[in-house]
Amino acid sequence: MKNSVIDIRFEGSKFYPSKLKRKLNLPIEVLAEYGEISTSGRYKGQPSPYGMGLLEISLLEKQKNINELFQEYCIKLFGWKEDLKEFGVDEIIIDIANTSEFPVDISISNDIIHNLSSINARVEFHTIHTEDDLEDNNESLKKNTLPLKKDKLYKKVLSSLKKHPSINKADAIPYFIYYYSTKNAENIDEKLNKFEDFYKEAVKV
Amino acid sequence: MLRKPSKSNLGKMLGVTEEIFHKKIKPKIKKDFSKELNEKNIDNPDIWLDEDDKIILVKPRDNTRFIETDLSIYSYK
Description:
By secondary structure, chain A is an alpha+beta fold.
């Protein structure tokens, strides 16, 4: 994927995404059509009790950056308000995704917040881990830790994970890498104690 | 034993990328169980699996609030 992408998901208890797709003439992918037989999930083999459609706007307008697209489509969504209502959309999710190497830089004005709220739209952010992330992290570990102390570091991480089971190992590694790649790896005992504090903070986020 | 696979691993189990899992499959799981999620005030659950690969929806950072779906992750394949 690109460094960051933006999608819009339309949902509704009696939503017909195929009709909205025709009306707006947009490549909305039908994930579930209200009343049609579901092919997977809880309602497999039964009529879907909801409709869901996905509009991948980053694929439509590849030249524009994430901020431009966000502003533009928030305005468009507000303009589609009556059509969305007519075809049964009762929830809109603007999904902004970035890869783990690139932070998202986006601003949301008061007007946009007001408009999004009026059409029951919300914004979700998430990070996609690339296939190479774990391998890269392992490489970073090799570069940024003292080899003789590596066993001790791993033990500390595993101990922290046991204390905080809601964060899995894959989630913890980036924090771990961040800490040790930005700090001098001398005075390892001191660093380990600091990592414990850092890890507790990470769990709170 | 309960486990919390990464999104990447959940995608692999279903033969799709993490990105596709996030965009197209997780929203369906959430919508399929939206009534139960709303009742427990869980907005964006973590997906855990039991020993039979059945989905358990867990409130992030609050392992005491969860929904046992009795539905295999493979039903979304």
